[in-house]
Specification:
Sulfite Oxidase, Chain A, domain 2, 290 residues, single chain, alpha+beta, 2 domains, 7 helices, 6-stranded mixed sheet
């Protein structure tokens, strides 16, 4: 073979290799989903951030949305209504690693804090920014934002978390649960024989279960804030003629004490039902349905 042809072929191959290496690699933008939890719940993506639903801001080298605007979507406010923010509540931001920071909205004006999603014209994992933000509140790769609303009396808002099957959990405030509200006297007796009776206000468990489409033959699991679980059968609530099973959150007109609430399973009626203390699940924070 002609030596010149060999050299020409080698040069062409080398040039082709250089051209191939010079072609920039396609790097996909980071994909993320932000979970917002409060009185309302929603999940938003980068595309949702640019629909005009939330207040966008551009500052220096980054672009994002006001944290107050995101919070307004889940704190019960109308869009761009920052009255609740200015009145004060806590917001907890959690990263993909589980690291979390909590801020008090009273420490910041609505336009102080930005959840950044674009930096130097490139989409970036979410991070919190603000000129008044101290170092210990800086958090990156944010995956969830949760608001904790105070009640009118200044006590923590009572919220029940319901897990209907495989669906996303539903968070219900006392106002949302009002249609299932009942009250009356109930009692339980501890294993040591101590009798405890009080006037309870709470939620009719059977009516709540029916509202989610469940009925006889199904089970309900009460989950305590410390992780303890107690299972009940729906038929147990249906067949009991001696009273009404409820999730109580008030005892003698007061919110259940720490270590007892936010909810307690109890039975109310006239005459006063007396159930074993072992069936009166306390510290209930969530319900799981099959």
């Amino acid at each position: 073979m002609n030596i010149h042809l060999l050299r020409t072929s080698a040069v062409l191959c080398f040039l082709a290799l250089l051209i191939g290496c010079a072609t920039p690699l396609k790097v996909s933008a980071p994909e993320w989903k932000l979970q917002l939890n409060g009185i309302e719940q929603m999940a938003v993506t980068h595309a949702d951030m640019q629909t005009g639903t939330f207040t966008e801001v551009t500052r220096e080298s980054y672009q994002g949305v006001l944290l107050a605007s995101l919070a307004a979507g889940i704190d019960g406010s109308e869009a761009d209504d920052y009255t609740a923010w200015q009145s004060g509540y806590e917001i907890t931001l959690t990263s993909s690693t589980g690291y979390a920071v909590t801020i008090d909205t009273r420490d910041y004006s609505p336009d102080d804090l930005v959840l950044v999603y674009r930096e130097d014209a490139s989409v970036t994992p979410l991070y919190l920014a603000g000129t008044k933000l101290p170092q210990d509140l800086i958090i990156r790769d944010v995956v969830s934002v949760e608001v904790s609303m105070p009640s009118a009396a200044g006590d923590p808002q009572v919220i029940l978390e319901v897990h209907p099957g495989t669906e996303e959990p539903t968070y219900l405030t006392i106002d949302m649960l009002e249609p299932f509200s009942v009250e009356g006297r109930g009692a339980y007796t501890t294993s040591a024989g101590t009798y405890n009776e009080a006037y309870y206000h709470g939620i009719d468990i059977l009516e709540l279960v029916w509202s989610f489409g469940y009925g006889e033959g199904d089970t309900l699991t009460a989950v305590a804030s410390d992780g303890f679980e107690m299972r009940y059968s729906v038929s147990e609530f249906m067949e009991d003629q001696e009273g009404t099973w409820i999730l109580a959150y008030l005892e003698d007109g007061n919110l259940l004490a720490e270590g007892i609430g936010p909810f307690r399973v109890i039975k109310i009626g006239d005459p006063v039902p007396n159930i074993p203390g072992s069936r009166s699940a306390r510290m209930v924070a969530a319900l799981k349905l099959p």
